Amino acid sequence: MRRPSAAAYVRRVDLVEVRPQVHMFRFRIGQAYLWRDGADLTLIDAGDITSAAAIEDGVRAPGHTPGSIALHLPRHGVLFTGDAVASVERVMLGVFNVDRAEAAATFRRLAALVPRTVCFGHGDPLTEDAAAMMEAAANGG
Questions:
Q1: What is the pLDDT, as a whole number, of residue 31?
Q2: Greatest mean pLDDT range, 49-58, 73-82, 89-98, 106-115
Q3: What's phi and psi for 111, nearest 5 deg?
Q4: Strand ranges (DSSP E) for the chain?
Q5: pLDDT for residue 2
Q6: Nearest Cα to Cα of residue 50 among 63, 27, 32
Q7: This prediction's pTM
Q8: Bridge-partner residues for 87, per DSSP?
Q9: Which one, 33, 50, 72, 133, has least CB within 10 Å?
Q10: For the residues 112-127, what does the mean pLDDT come to?
């Protein structure tokens, strides 16, 4: 059986460790994440439905687009919000939403998951007080 292989070239400055299992690739606009589970690696392009199937069930996160998802790994306390929530200078509702009211409801549902680490489609991840910061921002704080 032939194992697939791939070469990737990433400058050190573009790869940031969020926590030991999660690394973030920074791009000019947005980012993607690399999840390590033992010897397995999965690339998570924030909110990509194919990534959700590779890790765990996705969480419906409509509002930004009707089919938006987030990825929640409750056993690890990690939430990947995709474009539903952003962290650009502060934690906030993502911009350019098809349905702003539905996006706000999604934000509150994601905050209620009480994650320890939150990785966004745009902005720096939360690694400390993540649940409290998500809840405060989701409720207008």
A1: 75
A2: 106-115
A3: -60, -35
A4: 15-19, 22-26, 31-37, 40-45, 58-60, 69-73, 78-80, 85-87, 91-93, 117-119
A5: 56
A6: 32
A7: 0.75
A8: 91, 123
A9: 50
A10: 91
Alpha-carbon distances of 133 from 5, 7, 112, 113, 114, rounded to whole Å: 39, 37, 11, 12, 10
Pick the CATH number of 14-138 from 3.30.420.10, 3.40.50.720, 3.30.450.20, 3.60.15.10: 3.60.15.10
SS3 138: helix
| Neighbour count for residue 44 (Cβ, 10 Å) | 24
- Token pair belonging to 111: 């905050």
Query: Which residue is it, tokens 């790869």?
Result: 15
CA distance 119 to 84: 11
**pLDDT tens-digit series, residues 31-70:** 777 777 777 777 776 555 444 444 455 788 888 888 888 8
Q: Which of 48, 36, 47 is nearest to 81 (CA)?
A: 47
Joined tokens for residue 14: 């573009």
